[in-house]
Amino acid sequence: MNWQPQGVREAGGGLLALALATFVAITTELVPVGLLPLISDDLEVSEGAAGLLVTAYAFMVAVLAVPLTTATRKLPRKTLLLTALGVYVLSNVIVAVAPTFALVAVARALGGASHAVFFSVSIGYASRLVRPHLAGRALALVTLGASAGFVLGVPLTTSLGTALGWRTAFLVLAGACTIAGVLTALLLPSVPGGGAPPADAARGARRTALAQVTTANALAYLGHYTVYTYVSVLLLATGLATAALGPALLLIGALGLIGAAYAAARLDARLRQTTVVTLVVVAGGILALGLAFPGTVGTLAAAAVWSIGFGAVAAVFQTAAIRTRGASPDVVGALVNSTANIGIGGGAALGALVLDGVGSTAVPYTGAALVVAALAVVLLTRRAFPPGPADAPGPDHGGR
User: Is the whole-model pTM more than 0.85?
Assistant: First the structure.
């Protein structure tokens, strides 16, 4: 295979395919968030127990991302992505028809195994489509698909589930995953795997930097999902009508595109500054939500600020991790994927404990404290989050 990395414009078709696939992947992961009250009522479990559907999914990713990525390193990257999208379809169909909470949980775990492969490979894939110094912009463009999952996926499935039933929402999502698979097959070029960094004297420092990035990544996701998993519960507790929940999540989520655009414009030139600003906005928004709760207007306004910041988070940490060159792009993707999902699953579980124990008022403060911890890691690790632009063009990036 003679694939050569290109500019962002030339790689646009492939980046679009990855963004579309990322959209359905994120929506599949997070669709229970807006449907928790409906799922818990129908399957006769508590809202905290229903939230564990997010936890089970995320922990499958956390546990399996690295071993599955390593085990499949010799397989064609495009084939792996298409297979993962097919498993998403199967998982969503099983959830839609499952008669018991236990079977729903099993189907969600199956989706989590697919997610372990999908995001590990897609992060490395996006970085291989373009030349190394353009990786930040490429990853930011692909993560617009993730932002769209928040902006459109979760709110639309919430509105659909509210109107026609939560099972219908999962069936429609299965159809969307099928369409994304077809478009990925048509638009995404094949790229080779491999691309491990050289075993030179700086290898230890690169690995340390990668560990620092993934630690901050885990903390940021842990703080966010401690709150976001139960955002529908919090918003309903402010007096927001059930019928208004989907539109509210849509409006709030749409603001995340501002953060994603900010990341795309600045990451390759000012990684450290972009990371700090992003985490300050996320932590400030969550803290403001805690202070405003249970006032409806104040809570919605704070959630909007929080969403703007979080729109940049995925691109920030993916780019920082790739730039450390602490491992091959696929292994870097697996580590980012795994630690993010440790945060997602841990956040869902921690949020459930706080919600069922101390109460809903304590949930935002817990989440904000964890995001501040992520910010502290960034401030203390200058090598992992350097201030200047990426080297251009640079060492082998897996597709040269």
Answer: no
